[in-house]
Recover the amino acids of this structure.
């Protein structure tokens, strides 16, 4: 690398400057390109191959390119498994509400922090804590706070409302009466969605705050002169300006929540009606030692995501004309 | 009162301050709760869970922390090993990733070459590939290559994966900044006889400190916080555990809550300190790339 001297004309006599520049660019990009091929592209293709193998965890040592087989059993197994419908439904509910909640909370927080007030700097710093803290630390704190014996949430519910302790993260559902109708409240699923809202709203908050602070002041002056009140100014001036940011946030957060493994795995382990596809992939791999099935389900996950993204962009394309 | 002044009172004052207090409390309280419990005797927590004040007797000496840090042979939890592993992984990952990314970002902003579009699109695509989809083939590959045996091999395997997963965002962040630096100075340096690498080292780097700090912090935080790959590659050898994995593994055993909270404080501390020191750079980085997750 140290001998790459693009500025010495003597060396480049046989090549044009443009060719030299191109060679230099390839040298500088060689490592990232190699990494992407070896660690992203190759594993991705390898995963597709694995999804057609009859492969157990203990047989990994015997796997080689020579004894590859082709079987659709893995796909038949994971798609035909009892509970696949529920798995898919939980994943979609989690991804949809886990996308909406952080974005709504982030917007509210950004509106609150828009105008200066004493301690705004501190406020902004504290609000980023849920997002930057290590996932293991925050899930442990949530588990502790929601603990049925000594968790502070249950202590407060007991002391203030006289309620029975609820083990929030391991209760599938509780019957709730509302307006004379009884329905089942999915407790653990609500908790993991609330966790999503808590942990990821700072991401939306930062995006919205940056956008809000870039909005021109004279729009609001004009609105005031025309007699628009605070809420009217919000709905007629502010909200329409946030469309692009919101679209980007929805896209990113949906992809990430749909693929999210850590949060649910650490909070509930997929128990009590919170099993999502990513956690089930892990269960196939280590719980059932079935590498082929785990691969097949991960390909299904990537496929669903690809279809959803295609529809999303298609829809946007049509919207834009 | 007019509608405007009513709305100003309700939304502009009352609801606004309720909102500010609400957000402040939901973010700060869990942090306080975590720190407070790490300075409490577990018996006191079980008998009086409503008490939100730390035990002064466990603040100094910090008994819970000493127990957590003591080696297993002395009846502790052996956290020093995890801390060492985590720092090693995070620091090495950050150093390598930054060198690779600075060169790559420079090439893709300053140099003309065929396939530039393909490289840029490739990076975005990589960013979108779910970690869990790559986790299985990487696990299989590493198992076959014998990378899941000794501690150094396992940690190397982890560093390589962190490098590949932080690369796209780090390059993206640096590229955005490099395009704002005027080319004139670099051209002047090259006319004066500097090579490309010298130009990068002497001209580009000193001018890009904020972007490099932001990208470096992003990489460090990912490497420090990561859980899934650590779980896959390290689980069956406790000597190789990183802090995130180690702390969470304790949860499945009969370990007092207060120790788990002390462990959580230990993982969180470096991140929070870095954040406070470099907040200015970090906020830019968080919005530019977004911590994937």
């Amino acid at each position: 690398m140290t001998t790459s001297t693009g500025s010495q004309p003597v060396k480049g006599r046989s090549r044009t400057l443009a060719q030299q520049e191109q060679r230099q660019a390839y040298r500088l990009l060689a490592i990232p390109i190699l990494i992407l091929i070896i660690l992203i592209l190759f594993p991705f293709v390898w995963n597709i191959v694995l999804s057609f193998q009859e492969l157990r965890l203990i047989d990994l040592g015997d796997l080689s390119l020579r004894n590859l087989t082709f079987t659709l059993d893995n796909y038949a197994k994971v798609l035909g498994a009892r509970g696949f419908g529920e798995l898919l439904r939980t994943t979609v509910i989690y991804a949809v509400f886990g996308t909406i909640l952080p974005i709504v909370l982030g917007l509210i927080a950004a509106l609150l922090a828009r105008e200066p007030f004493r301690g705004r700097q501190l406020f902004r710093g504290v609000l980023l804590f849920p997002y930057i803290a290590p996932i293991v630390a925050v899930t442990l704190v949530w588990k502790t706070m929601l603990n049925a014996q000594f968790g502070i949430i249950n202590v407060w519910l007991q002391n203030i409302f006289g309620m029975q302790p609820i083990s929030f993260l391991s209760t599938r559902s509780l019957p709730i009466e509302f307006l004379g109708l009884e329905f089942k409240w999915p407790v653990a699923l609500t908790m993991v969605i609330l966790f999503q809202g808590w942990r990821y709203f700072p991401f939306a908050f930062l995006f919205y705050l940056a956008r809000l602070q870039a909005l021109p002041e004279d729009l609001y002056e004009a609105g005031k002169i025309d007699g628009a009140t605070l809420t009217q100014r919000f709905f007629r001036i502010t909200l329409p300006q946030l469309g692009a940011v919101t679209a980007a946030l929805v896209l990113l957060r949906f992809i990430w929540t749909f693929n999210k493994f850590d949060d649910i795995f650490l909070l509930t382990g997929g128990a009590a009606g919170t099993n999502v596809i990513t956690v089930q992939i892990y269960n196939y791999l280590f719980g059932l030692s079935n590498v082929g099935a785990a691969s097949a389900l991960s390909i299904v996950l990537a496929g669903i995501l690809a279809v959803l993204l295609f529809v999303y962009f298609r829809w946007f394309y049509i919207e834009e004309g | 009162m007019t509608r405007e002044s009513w709305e100003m009172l309700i939304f502009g004052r009352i609801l606004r301050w309720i909102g500010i207090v609400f957000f402040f409390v939901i973010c700060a309280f869990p942090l306080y709760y975590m720190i407070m419990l790490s300075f409490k005797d577990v018996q006191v927590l079980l008998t009086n869970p409503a008490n939100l004040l730390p035990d002064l007797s466990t603040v100094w000496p910090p008994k819970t922390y000493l127990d957590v840090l003591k080696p297993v042979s002395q009846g502790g939890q052996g956290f020093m090993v995890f801390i060492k592993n985590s720092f090693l992984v995070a620091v090495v990952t950050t150093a390598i990733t930054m060198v690779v990314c600075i060169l790559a970002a420079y090439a893709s902003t300053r140099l003309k070459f065929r396939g530039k579009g393909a490289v840029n699109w490739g990076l975005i695509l990589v960013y979108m590939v779910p970690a869990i989809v790559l986790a299985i083939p990487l696990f299989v590959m590493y198992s076959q290559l014998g990378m899941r045996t000794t501690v150094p091999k396992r940690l190397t395997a982890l560093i390589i994966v962190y490098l590949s997963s932080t690369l796209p965002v780090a390059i993206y962040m640096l590229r955005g900044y490099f395009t704002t630096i005027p080319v004139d100075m670099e051209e002047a340096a090259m006319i004066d006889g500097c090579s490309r690498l010298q130009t990068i080292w002497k001209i580009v780097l000193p001018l890009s400190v904020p972007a490099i700090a932001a990208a470096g912090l992003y990489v460090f935080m990912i490497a420090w916080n990561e859980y899934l790959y650590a779980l896959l590659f390290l689980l069956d050898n406790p000597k190789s555990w990183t802090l995130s994995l180690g702390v969470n593994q304790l949860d499945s055993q009969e370990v007092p809550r207060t120790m788990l909270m002390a462990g959580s404080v230990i993982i969180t501390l470096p991140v929070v300190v870095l954040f406070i020191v470099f907040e200015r750079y970090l906020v830019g980085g968080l919005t530019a790339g977004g911590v994937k997750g």
Remarks:
- Chain B touches chain A through 101 residues (CB under 8 Å).
- Residues 289-293 of chain B have pLDDT under 50 and may be disordered.
